[in-house]
């Protein structure tokens, strides 16, 4: 017999995911993950599930009321690896995190506080905190608004994400190799974790401009093999171990900005070049840009103000980060 499991579906940033209460899923991780795979879809097309046959639409949030004094809710992020019938709970996801606050209010985990409501989220994957500021006029969650982000259609109410002490959240330190720059297979790289493990590479060092269409980069098998060889070698150096079956680190090619921003990017998660950059990925890349001697030195255009607002260009627009 089948058993009905309640869920909600939200778009967070440029991703879309299923949101579950932890109490509605099995407590044992292996059994929980099997339920999630059945819900999202096990095959590449995900025709028997709710996923969209793409990594950005194959994501899950498992949320519960927190027992911590410094958090309102706990959030476990689960990435379904499309077509491989498995999940990865190693990384965070800033996009799906943005939907945790609205879900917490709609599910009755957090009461509305006024015209805005602050929800403090404990990110189980990385053991870090994020403060979400939501629009809640008239005592309820509001979704209509004028905020716009590239990579998602239309406008909506903004969700402000204040990340608290996320440096080294997955790898243990901001620069997990201990260096601002490393040489892997003759290619200079910057390995960084400011909320998301990312390997930043100057596109020219891999024979690319950094402005190619995503489909061109994804379908270039010789280039992809070089990129994956670097990814596999930096995994242990970043304290991630064998990353063969992990979606981190994310690989980001950088190039000088083209459209008035501060850096241009092409990001792979882990093998497909994506149309937009993730929230925490953008934070990590922007951080690499302001570090002296990183591979972004001489490529990124750095504003002089402090705090610094950096516009990270990606294939479908830009994402702005304040550091």
In the CATH hierarchy, the third-tier topology of the largest domain is known as Diaminopimelate Epimerase, Chain A, domain 1
Mind describing the biggest β-sheet?
A: 8 strands, mixed
Helix content: 10-25%
Structural class: alpha+beta
- Percentage of β-strand residues: 25-35%
Query: In the residues, how many domains can be counted?
Result: 2
Unreliable runs, pLDDT <50, ≥5 residues?
A: none
Round the mean pLDDT to the nearest integer and report it.
96
How many helices in DSSP terms? Answer: 5
CATH architecture of the largest domain: Roll
Give the CA-CA distance, first to last residue: 52 Å
Rg over CA atoms, rounded to whole Å, is 19 Å
CATH hierarchy, class of the largest domain: Alpha Beta
| Strand segment count | 15
């Amino acid at each position: 017999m089948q058993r009905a499991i309640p869920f909600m579906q939200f778009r967070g940033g440029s991703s879309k995911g299923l949101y579950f209460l932890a109490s509605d899923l099995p407590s044992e991780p292996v059994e929980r993950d099997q339920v999630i795979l059945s819900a999202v879809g096990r095959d590449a097309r995900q025709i028997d599930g709710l996923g969209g046959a793409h990594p950005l639409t194959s994501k899950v949030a498992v949320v519960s009321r927190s027992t911590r004094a410094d958090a309102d809710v706990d959030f476990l992020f689960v990435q379904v690896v499309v077509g491989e019938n498995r999940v990865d709970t190693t990384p965070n996801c800033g996009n799906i995190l943005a939907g945790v606050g609205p879900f917490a209010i709609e599910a009755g985990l957090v009461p509305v506080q006024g015209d805005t409501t602050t929800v403090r989220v404990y990110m189980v994957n990385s053991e870090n905190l994020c403060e979400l500021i939501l629009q809640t006029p008239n005592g309820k969650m509001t979704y209509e608004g004028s905020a716009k982000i590239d990579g998602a259609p239309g406008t909506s109410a903004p969700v402000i994400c204040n990340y608290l002490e996320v440096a080294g959240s997955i790898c243990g330190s901001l620069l997990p190799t201990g260096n601002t720059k490393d040489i892997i297979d003759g290619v200079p790289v910057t390995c960084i974790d400011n909320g998301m493990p990312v390997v930043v590479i100057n596109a020219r060092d891999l024979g690319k401009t950094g402005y190619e269409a995503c489909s061109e980069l994804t379908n270039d098998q010789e280039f992809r093999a070089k990129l994956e060889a670097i990814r596999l070698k930096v995994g242990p150096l970043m304290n991630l171990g064998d990353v063969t079956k992990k979606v981190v680190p994310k690989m980001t090619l950088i190039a000088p900005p083209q459209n008035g921003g501060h850096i241009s990017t092409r990001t792979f998660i882990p093998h497909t070049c994506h149309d937009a950059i993730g929230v925490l990925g953008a934070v990590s890349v922007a951080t690499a840009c302001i570090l002296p001697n990183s591979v972004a030195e001489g490529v990124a255009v750095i504003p002089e103000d402090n705090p610094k607002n950096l516009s990270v260009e990606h294939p479908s627009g830009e994402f702005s980060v304040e550091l």
